[in-house]
UniProtKB/TrEMBL annotation:
Record's compositionally biased regions (Low complexity): 83-98
Keywords: Signal
Source organism superkingdom: Bacteria
Signal peptide limits: 1-21
Residues covered by region (Disordered): 76-98
Protein name per its UniProtKB record: DUF1161 domain-containing protein
Organism, as annotated: Candidatus Pantoea floridensis
InterPro entries, A to Z: DUF1161
Length: 98
């Protein structure tokens, strides 16, 4: 019984770390897709922001994570470049069937 409680306690303590890792993995997947579409890594940034701050982030929402409590916002660096992100750069969670 004590062993089971210890395992449950460890799992509960690890949940916040796992949730953050999932946002980071979604962000990494989106970044890889953008780079594969010909955008240089230095030409954009991806930020993870709370849902209520996504509008103030000043970019385009390209993904979400943590049970849709966080948004991933794409920002193009530079002034002379196209500011749109390729359609295929979003996560598989961002389909039109939301």
């Amino acid at each position: 019984m004590k062993k089971r409680n210890a395992v449950l306690l460890m799992a509960m303590l690890a949940l916040p770390v796992l949730a953050q890792a999932s946002c980071e993995s979604v962000k990494a997947d989106i970044s890889k897709k953008i780079i594969n579409n010909g955008v240089a890594e230095a030409d954009f940034t991806l930020d993870i922001v709370p849902n209520d701050q996504a509008d103030q982030a000043g970019g385009q929402v390209v993904g979400h994570c943590e049970n849709d409590t966080q948004k991933i916002v794409y920002k193009k660096n530079g002034h002379d470049a196209d500011s749109s992100v390729p359609d295929s750069a979003g996560s598989s969670q961002d389909s039109s069937a939301q």
